[in-house]
Design goal:
Elements lengths: L2 H27 L4 H4 L2 H22 L8 H21 L8 H14 L1 H11 L3 H35 L8 H20 L21 H72 L4 H29 L8 H16 L2 E7 L9 H22 L3 E8 L3 E8 L13 H12 L3 E6 L5 E8 L1
Parallel strand pairs: 1-2
Antiparallel strand pairs: 2-3, 3-5, 4-5
Amino acid sequence: MTTWTVLGRFCHGLVFSILSLTIAFLQYRSRRILLARRLTWLGAFALCEAVVAWNDLLAPLLVRETLLPPVTRTVLLACGYGWLLAFGIQTWLPKDTSSQNLRWVLVAVFAAWVVPLGITLALTFPNWEMTALTGEILVRYGLALPGGILAGVGMRRQSYQTLEARRESVKTRLRLVEAGLAAFGLLNLVLVPAAPFFPANVFNVNLAPVPASLLRALVGAFWTVGLAATHIAIQTQIEQWIEDVERIQALSADRERISRDLHDGIIQSIYASGLMLETIQQLIATEPEKAEAQLARVMDSLNQTIQDIRRYIFDLRSDMPDDELEPGIRRLLRDFHINTLLETDLHISGEPPRRPLTFERRRHLFQIVRETLTNTSKHAHARGVSVALAYGVEALDLTISDDGVGMEALMLGRGYGLRNIRERARLLDSTLKIESAPGEGVMLHLTIPY
């Protein structure tokens, strides 16, 4: 074998091996994308093509004509190209075609080729080499050629059906896949072994300026790059959409909780104060001392309501600025101190990572800090709050502790505030730990991987 032939066969086997692995990964990673779920048959074809390519490369290097028996090699090619043709036909079917009907397509493709392969075997028996040669040419003409063209055009058609508006953003990447599939089919019109019958005796691998395996490897590389880039781009869009939905849901939960608390707490307190003032109005003329005592209670109640309103103003400031991590936490602590008059303390240790947390992750972190501070101001009866930020090698540690009355263990799982904290911790892929004991305050510890 020449150097170019060895290089071509090596690239051929490598590219289609990577293609089969890429398709397997995309199906695992991108199950939400219908286009990815329909790549199973294409992955089976790529695996068969890779096995044949490695056989053609390794056999001469091991001083053997072939590792696989010639007929077995041809049957493996037939299986691979059968998968390719079935995939091509599948791309032309409606997107709601049932799995059972798709299986019948596959069975029909393989059954249709039992007859010509059987005829080939009968005409060439017992010359197994001629059986293998003729069978390979037949499967390339009858399976690979129509399969590649159908798959290329069908993939384009199917992408319009399944991707809809997203197709425009990945159009260039998809064209690599579509063109590669069609080109692979057309290559099998001329890149067949030379044989003593038409058209293989005129159009065959001897016409190629470079080894046929190298051309097939180039086409396979187009598929691999195009498929991977397309599905990564679409998956990124889907994950961004899911994150936006989760963020909106978290904000809605925050606002629902705060509106409920406003109605149950502050509005009711103001309403009660109004009723007490009506009573005082009636007592001023007849019992001024009693009216004065009740007026003092109303003033105390209104002062407490004002403090509650200030806490809720802090709580409602859910739109976090695009601050870096440390300035953002300092701003939260400053506002908390202004609104509650509680002492605050911030400790920072370690070196910040070279790549800071994204805005979305910082925003979730700020919301956790804000929610924890709000819970402290409302329930802890604390004198102060301490926040510790520690930069580790692979993760960020955030600890928020107070010196309040603590929380009962059974109460830790209740309330919208803690539920929101846990949900945001999940969105950060972080580890959340809350410790508390009566009279010893509450400590929240969060470990966030970079």
